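Structure (tokenized):
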């Protein structure tokens, strides 16, 4: 132990003399290892760590796939009666629950906050064994069809909206005109399964009976909703495939009976999909985590190559000191232990910094990536993180010590001492330098190409023209706080007065009744009366001012009129994509389209296509190939509770101001949401923006580390050739000749690096083909060219810059002091 302590004291004393060396190693390894610990912990959480629920291996979701007449998947979503039928059957599942998501406003609260609501059957929290801070979970008294108005709060809602009130279980809250008695508060430690949108946290839990489905939806087998979920514990001994075989005929036969009177669904069926809750939660996030880990590992390898070069240079510098140690009896093992003490101290300091960076990284990810990666709030320094930190510290300490000691010719150390070091200094061999150059180029090429490819795809989506205006436009959605819903006739004069007061606001330039195009579409089944061909485009209700407000051009035909809306005329406007699906030449004015009712709709206009992030074509028939997303517009009613406000430049309207305005018209109405269209658009592009920022940062770090590494290696090689350069200049060599000589000497290593990058990419493709395949296309050729050009430019700079201090001086400067 004394020897161990003495060695580390000596190592520390030696390192203190080289603060620049220590700082470089500490910052380079600390930052890259911090990123590695982040990525490793994230991958363990998503790919390995079980969910925090009992019997999670038996916890599965059942999903409802609509299969078209051509055996194609039309949608993956439940119908309301189909879900209830499955729930009541108890087939294949020992215990099952239904879940529906929605939003609401707590009218009884002074600030009337907008909250995320979830409506569940009692089994949901029983299956999850949800921990409580206060009260109780839902019980049989809150089962389906009991209509018992009670509610549970999340811990954060209790703290933030009710100030952690001790008598919360004695209070009631009012939502949509119904007063709910609070019976429980979930624990701070409760982790909600992200079965809806990633990152969405439920504020208030209510019994299933109070979900927001209308009476028509509750009875219709033809309407689907992505908000309806089914989760349960599979019976012991029943596999997911067996459950699928049991559930598919049960659900499909009932659905076919339910839509027997609807010609549109002839030949369609239902196929059930059963998969684990963990798989449902993760979705595509596994590929994101794996690719992030691969990129960070590459970053660490580049950093490792850089630090290797520093350690080799330091070993050469310490040659005389080691020769003295050898002369007084130190063996090669003693020298290794002394070097290991230095590398251990450096790696220990680096890993401490890495842990701080990792914790900071967890916080940043939780703040900004909650909507991209599931389970992100579970990230923390854990035994896996610390175990990885210990292994990394030991591995790199041993690696750098071994690398340094291998440079030493122990038998030649005495000769070095006798000659005072002249002419016999340790040098990093040319072969080693060439290997380091090739490895840097190979790793940098692969990582830069990968990051550029992801960045290009993300930027393409972010910068794609959307085809409509969002500037100064906001969407206002009203909330109705009573169970006594007004009829359409009763709503029309109320909404007319609301519009009149909104238009009278000095900040408002114009107003349209309806939602923003970013969040106002639904999918609807339509039939072309002429050929009975069926389609499922996106549909939206719009008023006569909608297209003008968002500046979406009308290409052919007529716009809606106020008369169309008042008389509920069966007219329709389609976009270019749907027009081309209906007829190859897009000439569809006057065409009759059935929406399932007795009277078809007549197409009276065609508008230009728009692009909304996340929307994909719903029809994949041959006529649709090459077209964009099909969209259909019909006149909306005069009693709608959504409005678009176009504000004057530089003007704003507050939620509070709108709330007061509504109260003047009818106290039953309040503000449900009020959001700028530009904010909604940014939110819809959040995943792409995050990808762009992350890949840009990684690509920059790769360039920085690769540039520093290549500069260090080539600078060292140039320094070794100082006398040669001086001699060549003395006999007439030009600056241009010397520059080309240095570049030519390193060309072989650079080419080897490019070949190595091809090998690395091929290996990555073999191991990660499912993640890489979607990015492979001829469109990647420009990215390959850009990557190669940038890497070559960095390498050329690293060749030239160290050389300039010699070629810009007289030859005597390089020859002075040479042996």
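Design, position by position:
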């Amino acid at each position: 132990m004394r020897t161990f302590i003495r060695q580390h004291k000596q190592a520390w004393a030696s390192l203190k003399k080289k603060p620049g060396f220590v700082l470089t190693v500490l910052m380079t390894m600390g930052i890259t290892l911090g990123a590695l610990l982040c990525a490793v912990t994230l991958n363990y959480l998503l790919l390995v760590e079980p969910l925090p629920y009992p019997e999670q291996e038996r916890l599965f979701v059942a999903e409802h796939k609509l299969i078209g007449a051509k055996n194609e998947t039309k949608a993956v979503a439940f119908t309301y009666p189909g879900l209830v039928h499955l729930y009541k059957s108890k087939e294949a599942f020992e215990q099952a629950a239904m879940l529906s998501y929605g939003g609401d406003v707590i009218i009884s609260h002074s600030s009337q906050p907008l909250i995320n609501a979830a409506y569940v059957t009692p089994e949901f929290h029983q299956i999850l064994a949800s921990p409580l801070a206060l009260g109780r979970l839902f019980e049989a008294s809150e089962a389906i069809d009991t209509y018992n108005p009670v509610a549970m709060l999340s811990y954060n809602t209790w703290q933030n909206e009710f100030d952690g009130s001790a008598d919360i279980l004695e209070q009631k809250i009012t939502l949509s005109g119904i007063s709910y008695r609070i019976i429980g508060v979930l624990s701070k430690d409760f982790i909600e399964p992200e079965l809806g949108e990633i990152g969405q946290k439920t504020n208030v839990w209510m019994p299933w009976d109070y979900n927001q489905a209308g009476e028509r939806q509750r009875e219709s087998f033809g309407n689907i909703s992505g908000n309806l979920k089914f989760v349960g514990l599979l019976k012991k001994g029943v596999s997911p495939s067996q459950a699928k075989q049991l559930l598919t005929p049960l659900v499909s036969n009932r659905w076919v009976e339910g839509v027997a009177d609807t010609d549109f669904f002839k030949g369609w069926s239902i196929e059930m999909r059963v998969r684990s809750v963990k798989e449902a939660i993760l979705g595509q996030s596994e590929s994101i985590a794996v690719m992030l880990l691969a990129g960070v590992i590459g970053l660490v390898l580049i950093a490792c190559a850089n630090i290797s070069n520093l350690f080799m240079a330091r070993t050469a510098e310490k040659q005389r000191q080691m020769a003295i140690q050898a002369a007084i009896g130190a063996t090669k093992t003693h020298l290794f232990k002394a070097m290991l003490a230095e590398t251990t101290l450096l790696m220990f300091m680096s890993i401490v910094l890495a842990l701080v960076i990792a914790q900071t990284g967890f916080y940043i990810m939780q703040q900004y990536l909650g909507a991209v990666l599931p389970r992100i709030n579970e990230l923390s320094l854990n035994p896996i993180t610390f175990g990885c930190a210990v292994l990394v510290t030991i591995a790199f300490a041993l690696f750098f010590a071994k690398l340094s000691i291998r440079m030493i010719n122990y038998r030649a150390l005495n000769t070095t001492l006798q000659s005072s070091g002249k002419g016999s200094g340790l040098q990093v061999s040319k072969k080693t330098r060439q290997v380091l150059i090739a490895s840097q180029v190979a790793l940098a090429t692969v990582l830069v190409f990968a990051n550029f490819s992801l960045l290009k795809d993300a930027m393409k989506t972010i910068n794609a023209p959307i085809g409509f205006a969002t500037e100064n436009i906001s969407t206002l959605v009203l909330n109705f706080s009573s169970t006594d819903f007004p009829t359409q006739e009763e709503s029309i004069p109320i909404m007319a007065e609301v519009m009149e007061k909104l238009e009278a606001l000095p900040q408002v330039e114009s107003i349209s009744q309806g939602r923003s195009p970013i969040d106002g579409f639904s999918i609807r089944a339509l039939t072309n009366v002429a050929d009975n061909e069926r389609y499922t485009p996106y549909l939206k209700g719009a008023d006569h001012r909608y297209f003008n407000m968002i500046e979406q051009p009308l290409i052919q035909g007529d716009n809606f009129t106020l008369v169309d809306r008042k008389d509920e005329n069966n007219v329709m406007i389609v976009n270019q994509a749907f027009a081309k699906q209906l007829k190859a030449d897009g000439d569809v004015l006057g065409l009759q389209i059935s929406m399932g009712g007795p009277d078809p709709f007549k197409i009276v206009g065609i508008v230009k296509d728009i692009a909304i992030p996340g929307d994909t074509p719903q029809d994949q028939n041959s006529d649709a190939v090459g077209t964009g997303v099909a969209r259909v517009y019909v006149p909306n009613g005069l009693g709608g509770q959504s409005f678009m406000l176009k504000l004057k430049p530089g003007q704003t309207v507050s939620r509070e101001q709108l709330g007061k305005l509504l109260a003047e018209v009818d106290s039953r109405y309040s503000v449900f949401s009020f959001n700028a269209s530009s904010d909604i658009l940014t939110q819809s592009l959040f995943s792409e923006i995050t990808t762009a920022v992350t890949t840009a940062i990684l690509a920059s770090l790769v360039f920085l580390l690769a540039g520093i590494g290549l500069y260090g290696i080539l600078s060292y090689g140039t320094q070794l050739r100082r006398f040669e350069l001086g001699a060549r200049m003395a006999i007439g060599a030009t600056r241009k000749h010397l520059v080309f000589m240095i570049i030519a000497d390193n060309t072989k290593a650079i080419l080897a690096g490019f070949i190595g990058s091809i090998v690395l990419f091929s290996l990555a493709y073999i191991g990660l083909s499912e993640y890489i395949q979607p990015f492979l296309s001829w469109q990647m050729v420009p990215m390959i060219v850009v990557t190669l050009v940038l890497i070559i430019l960095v390498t050329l700079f690293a060749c030239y810059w160290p050389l300039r201090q010699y070629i810009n001086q007289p030859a005597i400067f390089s020859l002075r002091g040479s042996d």
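Reviewer-requested clarification: The longest helix spans residues 735-772. The radius of gyration is 34 Å.
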